UniProtKB/TrEMBL annotation:
Residues 9-131 form the Beta-hexosaminidase bacterial type N-terminal domain. This is beta-N-acetylhexosaminidase. It is an enzyme of class 3 (hydrolase). Belongs to the glycosyl hydrolase 20 family. Keywords: Glycosidase, Hydrolase. Its EC number is 3.2.1.52. Residues 137-361 form the Glycoside hydrolase family 20 catalytic domain. InterPro entries: Beta_hexosaminidase_sua/sub, GH, Glyco_hydro_20_cat, Hex-like_dom2, HEX_bac_N. It comes from the Bacteria. The active site is at 288 (proton donor). Coiled coil: none annotated. PANTHER family: BETA-HEXOSAMINIDASE, BETA-N-ACETYLHEXOSAMINIDASE. It comes from Marvinbryantia formatexigens DSM 14469. GO terms for biological process: carbohydrate metabolic process; glycosaminoglycan metabolic process.
Length: 625
């Protein structure tokens, strides 16, 4: 219990801790002392701690180096602890945090921040001895398939990662970086620049986070291989023949491995991009090469096999990365089909083994482990194709994958946030999943779903009721006409639409009665969010408002799906209601765009706009009439 009688907790949960009798009373005239030997920890690394003091205490402590006195808060480096290991002693006469290195001291600081947020200036006496179960714990953010965040948003994400003791960040790039000599690729986009990457890299370094470059270099080269300049390097002929499609962007556009120009182009882009990062790693991606051997290399694939072609190209890219003094990383989905091929890759290559199912099995992890692969286990926050993330699915998936990481001695856990079909979910909705990854990769003692959600609600959103994440987690249960169904219906051939509609939707959920019932439940969730607003901090209230907006979108799409279902039941549409629904959709999207632009660049917003406009026009046409 803390000084106010409420339960005390830390995220991630410390490995060992003991609360003792008494309190330490913080005062404005005490010092934050960097003891002799703490040179790796720069004063600017303490800015977040000082900001929290000002916010929650009304005062902050001055930082100094050297000797300390009773009442001071002391940070000390010691050779008795490992780099990421720390101890925290809070006694009635002062605070002592000790660690083996800079990382451990930064983690002790994050623990102090969480204690101050809960206890104010009267901290309970306690002892903590803490260290991570998995040494490398990261978050992977898609900045290509719809959303390109603002630099401020990326910095905010890094700060929150540091708060929960994550130590690696990757941002996924296909076309969303302003490469030299590639203006045809990014000319209609709002890409990140070299200057911004350099600034983000320095910012992450201050927080103890390694910013690892990640660049598509094999599959998923949609925009690159649709240009006039490089279309000839695509495995399939005439890649730009079809108009833009969310589905095609995911499924096609693999580079032709038999053309020597392909390898030289990817080396050029990798070489240009890697120089912006202080990290000594590089993720070449190389995932989902679905088209390999199905076009220009069909004859070669029949003769040599796809596995050899895949491994050869990946090996050449990895060798180039190693020649430049970096450790290569790549996604493991393809090589899981022939794990013995891993042994042909350069020594030290890291395989990023992903799997996103709630009931994800350990099969691929075991196969790669037996093949001798150095692995990261890569779960996901389940936000792709969702207005609000499938939070319970992400909990189950991340819990399992973190367990497999420990069971099979993985080097790291890299929790992923993908943006399939436009990255429609507000980035804030992925934060609970990000915290799951931080907590479960740190401490193998995993809290129950309801308990950790209560803790996240209080710690991250300032919600004293502890209910916010539970409310957010319930929303996806009432999504009857999903974004994936809506996009798939739009993008298919007209003569296939009824078949596709039935394939992607559940007829029982899209009856008008069921949609009405589900929308009422969503409205109840909205009322609960609004009722709890006074119990939340400012950031929590902003996220709650975003949830209300997202659930309005779910309700409107539910009604749209129910109207389509009624049409396919050959019911006569009510033209007036359809026109009113179209207007609601357009009005709602106006506010959705305002929220998008508050955290993201324009990037792929126009592609989502096209879907919204298509459905509004469809509704006004009396459903094909």
């Amino acid at each position: 219990m803390d000084g106010h009688g409420a339960e005390l907790f830390i995220l991630p949960q410390p490995r060992e801790w003991e609360q003792r009798e008494g309190f330490f009373e913080m005062r404005y005239d005490q010092y934050l002392v960097l003891a002799e030997g703490t040179a790796p920890l720069a004063p600017e690394s303490l800015e977040d701690l000082k900001e929290d003091m000002q916010r929650f205490l009304g005062f902050t402590l001055q930082v100094r180096r050297g000797s300390s006195r009773a009442g001071d808060m002391v940070l000390r480096q010691t050779e008795e602890l490992r780099e990421q290991e720390y101890t925290l002693e809070i006694g009635s006469e002062g605070i002592l945090a000790q660690a083996g290195g800079r990382a451990g001291l930064l983690y002790a600081v994050q623990t102090l921040r969480q204690l101050i947020r809960q206890c104010g200036a009267l901290l309970p006496c306690l002892h903590i001895h803490d260290y991570p179960a998995i040494p490398e714990r990261g978050f992977y953010h898609d900045v290509t398939r719809g959303r390109i965040p603002t630099l401020d948003s990326l910095k905010k994400l890094a700060s929150r990662m540091a708060f929960y003791k994550l130590n690696q960040m990757q941002i996924y790039i296909e076309h969303s970086f302003l490469f030299r000599d590639l203006s045809e690729v990014w000319r209609d986009d709002t890409p990140l620049t070299a200057e911004e990457i350099l600034e983000l890299d320095a910012f992450c370094g201050k927080l103890g986070i390694e910013l690892v470059p990640s660049l598509a270099s094999f599959g998923h080269l949609y925009k690159l291989l649709r240009t006039r300049q490089y279309a000839h390097l695509c495995e399939l002929d005439n890649p730009a023949a079809e108009p833009f499609s969310f589905r095609a962007r995911m499924d096609h556009h693999t580079i032709n491995v038999s053309d020597s120009e392909s390898l030289e182009l990817m080396k050029k882009l990798i070489g240009e991009y890697m120089e912006l990062f202080s990290s000594r790693r590089f993720n070449i991606c190389a995932d989902e090469t679905f088209d390999l051997g199905k076009g220009k290399n069909r004859a070669r694939a029949e003769e040599e096999g796809v596995s050899g072609m895949y491994t050869e190209f990946v090996r050449k890219l990895c060798e180039f990365v190693k020649e430049r003094g970096r450790t290569p990383m790549f996604w493991g989905d393809i090589i899981c089909g022939f794990p013995q091929e891993y042994r042909k890759l350069p020594e030290g290559t890291i395989c990023l083994n992903w799997g996103y199912a709630p009931q994800q099995s350990a099969e691929s992890t075991e196969k790669l482990y037996e093949a001798g692969a150095i692995q990261y286990l890569c779960p996901g926050v389940a936000g792709w194709n969702q207005w609000i993330n499938k939070i319970e699915d992400s909990y189950e998936n991340i819990r399992r994958m973190c367990g497999y990481a420990q069971q099979y001695h993985a080097l790291g856990v890299l929790n992923t946030d993908w943006g399939d079909f436009g990255h429609i979910n507000h980035p804030e909705f992925s934060i609970p999943g990000m915290i799951y990854g931080a907590a479960f990769s740190w401490n193998p003692q995993i809290p129950p779903f309801e308990e950790i959600n209560r803790q996240i609600s209080r710690m991250e959103y300032g919600d004293v009721t502890g209910e916010f994440v539970a409310v957010m987690a319930e929303a996806d249960r009432y999504c009857d006409f999903t974004w994936e169904a809506a996009v798939s219906f739009l993008e298919c051939k007209e003569e296939e639409r009824e078949q596709v509609f039935r394939e992607y939707t559940d007829a029982t959920k899209l009856s008008r009665g069921q949609v009405r019932e589900d929308n009422e439940k969503l409205h109840d969730l909205q009322k609960q969010l609004k009722k709890n607003l006074p119990a939340m901090d400012a950031g929590g209230r902003e996220t709650a408002a975003a949830c209300v907006l997202a659930t309005d979108g779910i309700r409107i799409f539910n009604e749209t799906g129910a109207s389509l279902a009624a049409y396919y039941r050959r019911e006569e549409p009510d033209a007036g209601k359809m026109a009113a629904l179209a207007e609601r959709l357009e009005n709602w999207f106006y506010y959705y765009k305002k929220l998008w632009r508050s955290v993201s660049r324009e990037s792929g917003l126009s592609q989502i706009q096209n879907v919204i406009d298509w459905y509004a026009d469809l509704l006004r046409s009396f459903l094909f009439g």
